[in-house]
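Please fill in the sequence for the structure shown.

STRUCTURE ENCODING:
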């Protein structure tokens, strides 16, 4: 028998405030969480959805150091960007806070101190890398070196971003501190550890026996961790950014971010419900649902529950953790460091008023059981062929026809036929499927169910053809359009969790107020005689130019990434000084420049070399327009033997530098130089 709950607490993974949120975050966590929260609220349930920015940890200190600002500057900037963009997308948090808040610092410190006083931690000394110049221990990300797997010279101590391999600092070849460049030393340091092995039997019983209904990707990862055997995990770290460890002898140590961050769910709840927060965390009649990505499964299914078990005092464990897999972008893994992402705040600027399109596409492509891929072409196709051509088309036709034949007044259904009652019965069947899929976190299937209502409506209009019936039978036409409008009203209800902005537009045009889930399936949601608003398009086509601009932006990111990863070619063999001095390098001024006929790569230069004029043929036509080079100064080798190219005698060689992508850049002086000056 399914357990009944009085209320639901929904938590969402805390995004790092070292950058904006991207579509991977949205598809994995925030859009599904919002769909579920809106659905439960429409069912009249007591729901609280909490979220916030994770503002501690090494990634934030690295960002601050790169920009020469404080970590607080970084988190203040990105917390605002994240919070504002969530609001604009319609993610309906009851509270979106941050882990630098006073309430969080107090809650996290108290949580640690309670476990410390109970003797739940073990104290251990270990050897860690230390920067003798910076006089601090180094987090894994603050150690760089050569990757032992691919040879990348700029691998981090936790991962090589070139080949994607997870690493430990000890594996790096020639490791150095990312702070000072010094060679790190191994030194002893003391930390507190949560003995996860102590809680392994309880976790096995709770997960493997008690939650077989969890998604297979979540259950499977938990089982794998438990079968390998759990080990103690550090809860403190040597760092100067974070919540100080609140015990004597812990100077210079802060709470490890994985310990600190999930406590943010509790502190965020306290922030919005200071008097009743315990009801949502300690009452057995509260259902807690954690929405996360797959990289957080172990923390939310094993580590945080172990923390709650160790704390005791009635803390409830999550009832479900519907984690999603990863969303890729154009066939490649989303990477914030490589700028290979679609950032939410940029999307909202580039596609104003199209929040629902992104919500729809991310739900349709949700990586619920395996990694999935977002492409801009699919984004365009789903908007144009589904939202515009199916959902928007049906709704618009029904409203426009009502304005055409009944001046926008909802007609009375005075001549119903079997097809009318059957279509409403079909929608009630869809409601059952839709509700089941939402209840069981199958949001992709639920979205298909919602769209089926629009498809049912389109088919109904095609089958009944009110524009033809209107010529001979006004009463039958009235009944058809009344039924079509009832389908529209049902569509407004069903679409609310998924595309809330469009749902609000639909309700406004139909003259309806807020609806509940119980209304779905009702054949009399709109009363005869109601006046409809003027029709307006719910969605509009997205043109190729908008998509091409986004693809071009990604290609530029790819190009910049390739340049950043480029390693210079090995040095050529040594030449003696006398040999080098034989080359006569000079500066000349370009007097004329033109393309060589029937030669795509060649330009003919006429150069003032200080001794007169000389002609040089150079293969840089792909990278320069001849006209822009006239008047520029270039470096050339003057004493090469003459050579004929396409019938033109070339008297030297113009020097160019070659980029990693093969493009050529002319070499020349920064300021004016007298033609013929030798390069020394």
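FILLED IN BY: designer on duty
SEQUENCE:
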């Amino acid at each position: 028998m399914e357990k009944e709950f009085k209320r639901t607490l929904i938590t969402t993974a805390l995004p790092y405030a070292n950058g904006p949120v991207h579509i991977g975050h949205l598809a994995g966590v925030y859009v599904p969480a919002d769909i579920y929260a809106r659905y439960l609220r429409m069912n009249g349930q007591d729901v609280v959805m909490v979220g916030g920015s994770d503002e501690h940890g090494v990634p934030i200190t690295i960002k601050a150091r790169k920009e020469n600002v404080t970590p607080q500057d970084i988190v203040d900037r990105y917390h605002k960007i994240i919070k504002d963009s969530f609001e604009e997308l319609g993610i309906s948090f009851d509270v979106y806070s941050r882990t630098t808040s006073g309430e969080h610092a107090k809650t996290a410190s108290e949580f640690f101190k309670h476990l410390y006083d109970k003797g739940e931690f073990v104290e251990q000394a270990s050897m860690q890398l230390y920067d003798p110049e910076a006089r601090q221990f180094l987090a894994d990300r603050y150690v760089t070196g050569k990757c032992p797997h691919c040879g990348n010279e700029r691998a981090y101590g936790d991962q090589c971003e070139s080949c994607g391999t997870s690493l430990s600092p000890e594996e790096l070849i020639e490791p150095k501190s990312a702070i000072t460049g010094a060679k790190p030393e191994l030194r002893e340091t003391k930390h507190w550890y949560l003995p996860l092995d102590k809680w392994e039997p309880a976790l096995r019983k709770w997960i493997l026996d008690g939650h077989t209904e969890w998604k297979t990707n979540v259950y499977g990862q938990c089982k794998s961790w438990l079968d390998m055997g759990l080990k103690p995990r550090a809860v403190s770290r040597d760092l100067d950014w974070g919540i100080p460890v609140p015990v004597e002898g812990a100077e210079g140590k802060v709470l490890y971010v994985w310990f600190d961050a999930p406590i943010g769910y509790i502190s965020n709840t306290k922030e919005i419900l200071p008097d009743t927060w315990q009801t949502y965390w300690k009452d057995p009649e509260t259902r807690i649902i954690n929405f996360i990505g797959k990289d957080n499964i172990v923390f939310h299914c094993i580590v945080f529950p172990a923390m709650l078990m160790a704390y005791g005092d009635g803390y409830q464990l999550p009832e479900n953790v519907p984690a999603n897999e990863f969303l890729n972008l154009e066939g490649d893994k989303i990477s914030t460091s490589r700028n290979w992402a679609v950032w939410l705040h940029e999307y909202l600027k580039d596609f104003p008023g199209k929040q629902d399109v992104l919500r729809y596409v991310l739900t349709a492509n949700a990586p619920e059981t395996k990694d999935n891929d977002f492409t801009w072409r699919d984004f365009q196709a789903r908007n144009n062929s589904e939202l515009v051509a199916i959902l928007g088309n049906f709704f618009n036709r029904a409203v426009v026809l009502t304005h055409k034949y009944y001046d926008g007044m909802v007609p009375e259904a005075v001549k119903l036929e079997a097809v009318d009652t059957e279509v409403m019965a079909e929608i009630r069947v869809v409601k059952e499927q839709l509700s089941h899929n939402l209840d069981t976190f199958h949001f992709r299937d639920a979205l298909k169910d919602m769209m089926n209502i629009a498809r049912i409506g389109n088919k109904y209009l095609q089958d009944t053809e009110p524009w033809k019936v209107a010529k001979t039978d006004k009463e039958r036409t009235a009944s058809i359009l009344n039924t079509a409008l009832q389908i529209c009203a049902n569509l407004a209800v069903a679409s609310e969790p998924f595309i809330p902005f469009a749902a609000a537009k639909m309700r406004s045009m139909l003259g309806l107020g807020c609806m509940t889930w119980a209304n779905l399936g009702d054949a009399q949601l709109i009363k005869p005689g109601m006046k409809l608003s003027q029709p307006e398009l719910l969605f509009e086509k997205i043109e190729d130019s908008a998509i091409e601009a986004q693809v071009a932006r990604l290609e530029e990111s790819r190009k910049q990434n390739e340049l950043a990863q480029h390693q210079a070619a090995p040095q050529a063999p040594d030449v003696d000084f006398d040999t080098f001095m034989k080359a006569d390098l000079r500066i000349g001024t370009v007097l004329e420049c033109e393309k060589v006929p029937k030669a795509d790569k060649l330009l003919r230069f006429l150069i003032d070399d200080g001794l007169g004029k000389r002609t040089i043929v150079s293969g840089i036509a792909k990278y320069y327009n001849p006209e822009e080079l006239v008047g520029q100064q270039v470096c050339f080798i003057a004493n090469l033997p003459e050579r004929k190219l396409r019938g033109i005698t070339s008297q030297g060689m113009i020097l160019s530098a070659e980029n990693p992508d093969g493009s050529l850049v002319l070499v020349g002086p920064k300021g004016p130089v007298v033609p013929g000056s030798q390069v020394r």
